[in-house]
Amino acid sequence: MAGALSWVEGAVGAEDAVAIGSRRELFVDRLLVGELKNTVLKLHEPQLMPPVSQPRPHGNYATVLRAPDKFQFYYRGDKDPQVTWKTQGIEAYHDGEVTLYAESVDGIHWTLPKLGLHEHSAFPAGNIILMNEFMVNHNFTPFIDTRPGVPAEQKYKALGGLAYQTHQQAVREKRGPGGLKAFVSPDGIHWKKLRDEPVIPEAWGKYFDSQNYAFWSEAEQCYVCYFRRFIGGLRGIARTTSQDFIHWTPFVEMKVNLPGEHLYTACTQPYFRAPHLYLALPTRFMEKRGAATDILFMSTRGGEVYDRLFTQSLIRPGLSKEGWANRANYAAIGIHQTGDTELSLFLTQGRRYTLRLDGFVSVNAPLEGGEFITKPLTFDGNELTINYATSAAGQMQVEIQDAQGRPVPGFSLDACDPIYGDHLDRVVTWKKESDVAKLKGSVIKLRFVMSDADLFALKFQDTPGSSNTALKSGG
């Protein structure tokens, strides 16, 4: 190791570097972005696929979970769609809501299991998992609890509920307090209340009439909930945390809205390939444009701040008039792998959009070429892998530098075997050698020289027995 340190003498200390360990890092924020020279951060456009089968005509607040053996889809149904809060009042409206359930082995083809839990003529398939829970069924949102040691009977948890508005006090006195109520389940099908009282008080919400999602954060080692709150008269997002799913910390308002902008949902969730990153697909609500909506993209690493590199929409309403209807576009909770190379996002009316794995944002270079240099960082592992794509004419090479920008001997740009093609986890080699273990713990920078190429993610990994593995230089 002493030989490895000679070239970083006088460099930036490890305490000033970004410690990425062996985590996969995406370019959804500027954590690693040092210099962009004729390169840009590019938001990629999800591709609309054929509708899922059977189409899932879910309400605005749907959830897609990935269990070890299946996908599970939760969505709202109405006993009588003609009953609305405007026509029959809040009691009849919310009493008429149920939570429905579907299953799939691939996330694309769905079945409606006859569960025998709740029966109603409007749902002959028998796939109701929750009924007669006043206001809870409006936005019942479950998750699979990955906390170590969680009891088997509480493997699934959920929040649901609303807060009463000022003119609904009579209903409150009759039906009890509002707020977010907690439920638990061993299998995501059989649910019971964790307790009768709300765990997140209705005073926080104003009015929780959105999808309020909680999850266990591996990175923060606590439960996290992102919920709707009006902030300065705008629909916005707040956050709270908990150690036991019952007692929650005072909420923090997330300062993310643009001037005059309504964010109808938070839709914030850990990304399964990099769970320290929370990705958000909120619905932007254009109140003065016929309540038109589109889907945005944001990220956060926890705490009180979203990183919003992009203000344009991720998914637009589209060509059809249905996409421009009142509140027509909501992304379901759930970003899942549905193929060897693809991610799926699920939207209202059974729509499914896909991206490549990690494919939300890239460092993009034109054909004439450009460079991207990271901030100083430290890592663990013995190989550098990248998720990238080039054109047939494009390529990239990687140089490892010390903290002051000097090439590390043996890892210069000239030594890097040219990289072209399209791969999710390509091992970078220098003169056919991949072993970077001797640099582990040292402060480095990565310099990417690119042409007609996209870099989506990078990761240092420990690969037993594969150090010094020679790879073909091309695609």
Detail the topology: elements first, then pairings.
Blueprint: H1 2-5, E1 18-21, E2 25-26, E3 33-37, E4 40-43, E5 47-49, E6 63-67, E7 70-78, H2 90-95, E8 97-104, E9 110-111, E10 128-131, E11 141-144, E12 156-160, H3 169-175, E13 179-185, E14 192-193, E15 200-201, E16 213-217, E17 222-231, E18 234-242, E19 252-254, E20 262-263, E21 268-271, E22 274-280, E23 283-286, E24 292-295, E25 298-300, E26 331-337, E27 342-347, E28 351-356, E29 361-365, E30 370-374, E31 377-379, E32 383-402, E33 422-427, E34 444-461
Parallel strand pairs: 1-31
Antiparallel strand pairs: 2-34, 3-30, 4-29, 5-28, 6-7, 7-8, 8-9, 8-10, 11-12, 12-13, 13-14, 13-15, 16-17, 17-18, 18-19, 20-23, 21-22, 22-25, 23-24, 26-27, 27-28, 29-34, 30-34, 32-33, 32-34
How would you summarize this macromolecular structure in one to three sentences?
The protein has 3 helices and 34 strands.
Characterize the structure shown.
- It is built from three helices and 34 strands.
- With 475 residues, it is mainly beta.
- The protein folds into two domains: 2-44 and 362-461, Jelly Rolls (Sandwich), CATH 2.60.120; 47-356, Tachylectin-2, Chain A.
- Strands 2, 3, 4, 29, 30, 32, 33 and 34 form an eight-stranded antiparallel sheet that branches.
- The model is unreliable at 1-11 and 467-474 (pLDDT under 50).
